[in-house]
Amino acid sequence: MKTFVTGASGFIGSAIVNHLLHCGHEVRVMVRPDSLRTNLDGLPVEFVVGDLTDPSSLKKAIKGCNVLFHVGAYYRLWSSNPDEFYSVNVKGTRDIMLAALAANVERIVYTSSIAALGSAPEGQEADENTPFVAAKGRVIHYKRSKFLAECEVKNLIRDEGLPAVIVNPTAPVGPRDIKPTPTGRMIREAAAGKIPAYVNTGLNIVHVDDIAIGHQLAFESGVVGERYILGSENMSLKDILEHIAELTGQSPPYIRLAPNLVLPIAYVSEYWAKLTNGAEPMATVDGIRLARKCMYFSCAKARRELGYSPRPAKEALADAVAWFQESSATAKQTSAVSLGANRN
To answer: Cα(274)–Cα(263) distance, rounded to whole angstroms?
Structure first.
C-alpha cells in the first residue's frame, strides 16, 4: 500500500509522515521545488516534485498510490496577495481530489481546519455541526478559503463517490514548527519575553503529534463524508501566556488590551509589510478580528468514534517551548562558529 502526502514538509504534514511511517505505510511525499525539507531529513520516503497550483503535476505525483493524505494548504492570517488562499486551498484541493479519483485512490483523509467551522456563543464549545457563518464586513480569507475547500470535497463525495474522511485540527503546537505557524510565532515570542500584553481570547491547543495520530485513526475508522475535530483542551490566551512564563521563569503579562485598541497597530503593520514586501506582521487585522471571540471547540466526536485520546494542552505547550528554545540555542551556536571562522 503506497500512501501519498501533500504538504509533507510542513508542520502538521511532517508529523503525519513520521506517524504513517511508524504505522508501516510506504510513503510518497510531494514537495515544491523550493520547499524547505528540514522536517523530512533522513526519513525513508519517496520524493516527488509538484505544486497544488499545477494540476498536471498532481496527476503524475499521485499515480500508483492507494491512499491520499491531503495536508497541503496556504496557512497564514495575512498575505499581500489574497488570491493565493483560493488558488492553493480551494482550487488546489479540488484538483488533487480529482487527480485521486482518476488514479482510483481507495481512501482519502482531507486535512481541513476549524476555520471551516462556525464559532459557538461565548463560553461554549463549537463542534462538527456548528455552521460556518461568513464574517460581516472584511472577509477573512483563510477561513473563507478553507470553508470553500471543504465544500469542494463534500460535493465530490456526494457527486463522484470520493472516498474522503475530513479532519479539522485546532491550533497545533509542538516541535518542528520551523516557519512557524501563527500560534507557534506567539509561543516563540512569549518564550522570549516579547509579549507584554494580551487580549481576552482563547484557543483549543493540541499537540501536533496528536493531530498526526488522529489522522491515522481517521484513516482506519473514520466514516466517509464525516468530519472530526482533532483538538485537545481549550485555554484562554491569558492562561497560555502564564504557563509559558512559568516554563521559562519569566513574569507573565498583566496588561489586558481591548482588540479595538490593537487594530490600528495591525493596520499599520500590514500596510508596512505590503509596502516593503515583508513577512507576515505579528499583529494582523484578521488575527485581531478573530481574537474578539474565544475559539473553543470540542473533540468529543473524535474521542468517541475514532478512539482519539490527545495529551493535555500544557504538555503540548511545554514541548513547543522546549523546541523553540533548543532551536534558538542551536542557531546562536551556529552563528558563533561561523563568526569565529570568518575572523580566522
So the answer is: 17
Report the range of poorest mean pLDDT among 165-179, 297-311, 319-333: 319-333
Helices (H), the chain: 11-22, 55-62, 83-84, 92-102, 141-160, 182-191, 208-221, 237-248, 259-276, 285-290, 300-306, 313-343
| Widest pairwise Cα distance in the chain | 67
Q: Give residue 88's pLDDT.
A: 95
What pLDDT is stored for residue 133 in this prediction? Answer: 78
Domains contained in the chain, CATH given: 2-176+205-232+297-311 (3.40.50.720)
Residues in CB range of 159: below 8 A, 6 or more apart: none
> pTM value?
0.89
* 246: number of Cβ within 10 Å: 14
- Quick check: 28 and 46 in contact, CB under 8 A? yes
Alpha carbons 109 and 130: distance in angstroms, whole number: 21
SS3 state at 328: helix
Distance of CA 203 to the CA centre of its chain: 13
302: left (phi over 0), alpha (psi -120 to 50) or beta: alpha
